[in-house]
Amino acid sequence: MAFHALGGILLFIAWRMTGMPSPGVLGRLIPLAWLITAVVYGRGDRPAASLQLLGISLLLFVFWAAAPGMFTVASSSAMLAVFPGLMKVSRRRLGLLMAVIPLVPMILVLVPFTGDEPHYARITEELFPGGTGRFQEYQRQAGDPGEGFRHHQSLYPALMLPGYPGGITGIRLMNTLFALWAVTVLSRTMRKSGFRKWRELPLLALLTMPGSGVLGLVYPGWLAVAVFVTGVYMFLKGGRKVWVLAAAGALVLVKIRFAGLSLGLLLALLLEYRGRKRLTIALVLLSVAAAGLLFDFGFLGGRVFWVRYGNVEFLKTVLVQPLYRSSHLLLALFSTLVDIESGLLWKAPWVLAGLAGLPALRRERRALFRWLGLPGLLYLLVLVYWTGTNWSGMPTPAGRMLLPLLPILLASLGMVMKRAGVRVLVWISMAAGAVYYCHPLLRMNHADGTDALASTLAGAAGSLAAWVPSAVRFSLPVFLFWILGSALVVWMIAARRGGTGYVLAAGFALLCLAGGTTRTRWEAEDIPPSMKDFCQLYPRETEPEHRKFWMFSTQRMLRLHREEDAVRIPVRRDPGDVAAVEITYRSMGEGRGPGIRLTCGGWSDSLFSVSDMLDPPDWTTRIREAGLEKRPENLGELRWTLEMPVTADTLLIEVIPAAGPDDDLHGIYLDAVTVR
Amino acid sequence: MLLLRGIDALSLSACFLAAGILFYSGPARVLAACVLLGGLSLLVRTDGFAAALLLAGALSAMACSECVISRSAFLLSVAAAILSGSLTGLVPLGIAAAAAVFPAASINRSAFIGAGLAASVAAGGIPLASPPAARRAEEYFVRGGIAWEHSERLDLSAPALVLEAGEAEPADLRILLSAGGVRDDEPVGFVMAGDTSFPVPSGEVRIRMNEPVFPVSVVLSRRWKPMNHPVIHFIGAEAGTE
Question: What is the distance between the alpha carbons of residues A300 and B17, in angstroms, rounded to a whole number?
Answer without folding.
Answer: 67
